[in-house]
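G., before I forget:
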Amino acid sequence: MSKKQRIISVAIFATLIILILSGIFLIKTPINNADEISEVMRDAVLHEREKISIFGISVNPGLVSAYTVTAILLLLALIIRIFAIPKFKIIPGKFQLLLEQAVGTFDSLAEEKSPHRNKFLSFYIFAAGSYIFMGTIFELFGVQAVTERGSPISLPAPLADINGAIALGVMSYGVILIGGLVANGIGGALKALKDFSLPISMSFRLFGALLSGALVTELVYYYYSLSFVLPVIVGILFTLLHAIIQAYVLTMLTAQFYGESTENKKEE
Amino acid sequence: MKKVLKTLFLTLFILSVTAVPVFAEGAESSVVSVKAIAAAIIMAVAATAGAIAMAIAIAKAEDSTARQPEAAGNIRTAMMMGLVFIETAIIYALITAIIIIFVL
């Protein structure tokens, strides 16, 4: 790019920014907002007003996004199984490498943390990890749905709803408990029961992390004047980073405690 | 350490004194401001304590990695576990603050 072109593009960019900024400060109130920001944020926590009706039952928006994410994941798995896996070669291509890396990460995590029994654990943490990752990334696409009041709402992350987070946390605890029961009998289950605060800590950490991200993004997207460069940073910080960190943390905790409850004492 | 505690208590005292005029304004607004102060104090204390705890953990882990580079993997895993539990405690505080603001 020559110097002249650069100057022209910078000038166009600056003019656009000035135009947009002047528009924001001239039009004080955003046009399309019928709700106060405090009401919007309150509803993101409590889900009292915005309900979506599926099959005649009014549900939280989080449930709709949970179903959507599950459907996307199942469809993706089916497509990969039918079209991609029969074409696997000895010398892998790009997509095969990506898949092998994803599966191998969780497999080696399960093997490292739980050396005695890890067949089911590796399946479970792969599923849970990809669900958390996809569910958090899903928020970034901003899929719209129509609420019962007739207003559009962008679907939140399924785990930003406390019910989804508690379900995932309790399910992970159930996996640990049943693993201990199968491997070591009552003693293994008792060992897992000792950490009775684990489901609370796992589910609330998911809920807190995702909800705080959702609230911050809500705040940033609400005001026009905040919605220029900031969403890029906030989106990366609170969505992509949380997706990776939460997926890693939940799978690591599950694998760690599963390994503790299933370890074989008799061999030592 | 004593100095830090003194500063903390002084800050809390000043906060509570300056909050008094707010109480006089009326029932509704005073409730809101008390909630805001409570949530702010919760988050401030939890985040400070968590940051200090995390800093200590990370510093110790770095120390031990420098001392024994061959054990870096194990040290990192243990440090991550510890950080996760510290973060959980902070997130409990965050949830308490959210509940105070939106539910109470």
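The two ends of chain B are 35 Å apart (CA to CA). Residues 85 and 91 of chain B are 10 Å apart (CA to CA).

More on Monday.
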